[in-house]
Amino acid sequence: MQFASYVLPPERVSEEIESLTGIRDSFLREGGVDGSTGVFHGPAPGFGQVYEHFVEWANEKRGGRDVVLMAHNSNFDVGFLDAEVKRLGVELSGGGDGLVPPLLSRDAGIVSVVDTLALLRTKKLWAGTGSFARSRGGEGGGEGGREEGAVKRLPRPTSFKQADVYKHVCFAPMPGAHNAMSDVTGLEAILTSETVRREWREIADGIQKGLGGVQ
């Protein structure tokens, strides 16, 4: 259940972003071998084409249910989405052919967003410094002093950058940081880790917000 696509940006990718992500402007405009996967790609499609394919994929997978967008520091991602959706709407309206402007809530059923940066900062997910809750599957109460079914917790991280939280809960560096699909699978690994998985949905319910400008 994965959707991933590079998108051709309207302006040249800066050297700073190339250095951060490993994605070169020439790769997006001319195509080539993807350094993160070793797979060859042609030139990246424009946002309008990617949006159309994403909407089709999302509606096929969601089965009529509402969708919650989850992203780490979601304001950053939603800001980009907002700008691109608005720009696409201007392009479509400028064509004078009566096309309906894009609207994520209507087109793909995305109704709200959860910022996992805020979610993972929630103190109830973590043990106190240097302490752990009892691990699941241990001895029962009484002599062993263990509560069956209790959750093993880690101390609260000192950094909430996604790659740092991943290393904290998965005990290994996060592969491919700043590549979109790697960021998604890394976030999934964090949310399904033993110390986070039992609590995050309740927290997410309490902090999710409407999609804002990208309606």
What does this structure look like?
There is one protein chain. With 215 residues, the protein is mainly α. It has one domain (46-210). It contains nine helices and five strands, in the order H-H-E-E-H-E-H-H-E-H-H-H-H-E. The strands form two sheets. A three-stranded mixed sheet has the order 3-4-5. A two-stranded antiparallel sheet has the order 1-2. A hairpin with a 6-residue loop joins strand 1 and strand 2. The protein starts with 14 loop residues before the first helix and ends in a 5-residue tail after the last strand. The model is unreliable at 129-148 (pLDDT under 50).
Keywords:
215 residues, mainly alpha, three-stranded mixed beta sheet, two-stranded antiparallel sheet, 9 helices, globular
Task: Itemize the secondary structure elements and their pairings.
Blueprint: H1 15-21, H2 25-30, E1 32-33, E2 40-41, H3 47-62, E3 67-71, H4 74-94, H5 104-108, E4 110-115, H6 116-120, H7 162-170, H8 180-191, H9 200-207, E5 209-210
Parallel strand pairs: 3-4
Antiparallel strand pairs: 1-2, 4-5
Helix pairs in contact: 7-8
Count of individual domains: 1
What fraction strand? 5-15%
Model regions low in confidence, pLDDT < 50 over at least 5 residues? 129-148
The helicity comes to 40-55%
Class based on secondary structure composition and strand pairing: mainly alpha
Number of strands: 5
* Overall geometric form: globular
Characterize the biggest β-sheet: 3 strands, mixed
Compressed to H and E, one letter per element, the order equals HHEEHEHHEHHHHE
- Major β-sheet strand ordering: 3-4-5
Radius of gyration: 21 Å
Mean pLDDT: 85
Distance from first to last alpha carbon = 24 Å
List the total number of helices: 9
